[in-house]
Amino acid sequence: MKKIAIKRPKDDNFWLRVVSILIAIVLWFYVNSIINPIKKREIIIPIRYNVATLSKGLVMTEADAKEVRIVISGTQDELSKVDEKNIQAMVDFSDIRQTGEVKLPVAIQNPYHRINIESVYPKNVTVSIDNLVTIQKDVSVEINGNPKKGYIINNYQEEPNVISIKGAESDIKEISKCVAQLNLSLNDRSFKASVPVKVIDSRGKDITSLFDLSQKSIDVYVEILKTKQVPLSVKFKGSLPPSKIISKIILKPSTINIAGKEEDINSINEIVVGTIDTKMLDNVSTFQFDFSLPKNIKSLDNVKQVTITIYTDSVVEKPINIPIEVRGLSPGLVAKLSPDKVKVELKYYQSAQNSIDFNSLKAYVDVSNLTKGSYNLQVLVEKPENIKEFEVFPTYIKVEISENNQTKTQSQ
């Protein structure tokens, strides 16, 4: 066997260099283990589900984890430089082609080359995949609150009244209705508002966040009208004979509640339901009119027909001569009246004649606080009930007030 001879280095500093390297290695281990040691740190990172990689027509509905716990390691100096926002946990759907539950790995993207990923929990997540469905749904308007007192909501109009809803097929099946909830605050004018659309399930829960809506809000126009209660009346054509009179008119109903624009309502103080020819009137006459309203005015009552009952009567004129009483005369005085009687011409309805107490008819002059002297005083009358009107002849009389001679003689 041929021997291999090892040449000894000619440089005497060789061993010094070897020793220096060994010392450097020892110092490096010392510095990294004592001064800047390797440490571990736990961080929590939100999982980003890259749904953009899902096949067309599929959608992720649920996932059993929203974040992962990651243990990273590195020197103390390197760990202090780590910003958790730069480390990402991603779930990719590129290989998913069907619906159902599937387990997918969580991929960690670590931009720090001197930081190691020691562990990840969970390493996999279970997600639910469903069909992506689009439907058309009517939007109903729900109005809460009330307009100002004396006003009503006549109607409202929404635009659009149908929207498209896109979401998971299983979530779509839970939809009960789409609503736009409008809140009133004592409004007294018509207005237009943009109202958010809500998707509600069968339990009344708002599940709007589960879907993409073609319209997140709709425009709602609300028409508000002023209300008013007005009397009903009737017109007459022709005239009754002088001895006849309409004593009473009864309308059923006698008033009606109406609504309309403020300028229209303010101009209406009554509503004439029809015209009656006085030639058709008897003692008691009944008529019926189909109810109609002025243009742009709405009835708030269910009135289709108005019944009118008209009572006529004969007017009786009766003259009565009655003495004039003196009232309020002070003691010790006497009054002389000229004339001492008046004629009172009464007018009343013939139908009330039997109920009139003619004895209660009184004529008098009031001389309260008057002293001796001559006065021209008005004749006052107390009339019985059911007297329509009356006239007194003469209206004024002469009254002479003097001392009572009998009283004066007795005192002497």
Looking at the overall shape, the CATH architecture of the largest domain is: Beta Complex
Mean of pLDDT: 89
Distance between the termini: 197 Å
Number of domains: 4
Q: Structural class given helices, strands, pairing?
A: mainly beta
Characterization of the model:
This is YbbR family protein. The chain crosses the membrane at residues 14-31. There is one protein chain. The model has no long low-confidence stretch (mean pLDDT 89). 12% of the residues are buried. β11 (175-183) and β12 form a beta hairpin. The strands form four sheets. Strands 2, 5, 8, 9, 10, 11, 12, 13, 14, 16, 17 and 19 form a twelve-stranded mixed beta sheet that branches. Strands 15, 18, 20, 22, 23, 25 and 26 form a seven-stranded mixed beta sheet that branches. This protein has helices spanning 14-35, 76-80, 169-172, 262-265, 405-411; strands at 38-50, 58-63, 67-75, 88-92, 100-105, 107-109, 116-121, 124-144, 151-159, 162-168, 175-183, 191-201, 212-213, 217-237, 244-252, 255-260, 271-277, 284-290, 298-299, 305-327, 333-338, 341-349, 362-366, 373-378, 380-382, 387-393, 396-403. The chain is built from five helices and 27 strands. It is elongated and about 180 Å long. It has four domains: 38-122, RNA Polymerase Alpha Subunit, Chain A, domain 2 (Beta Complex); 132-225, RNA Polymerase Alpha Subunit, Chain A, domain 2 (Beta Complex), CATH 2.170.120; 227-314, Beta Complex (RNA Polymerase Alpha Subunit, Chain A, domain 2); 315-411, RNA Polymerase Alpha Subunit, Chain A, domain 2 (Beta Complex), CATH 2.170.120.30. With 412 residues, it is mostly beta strands.
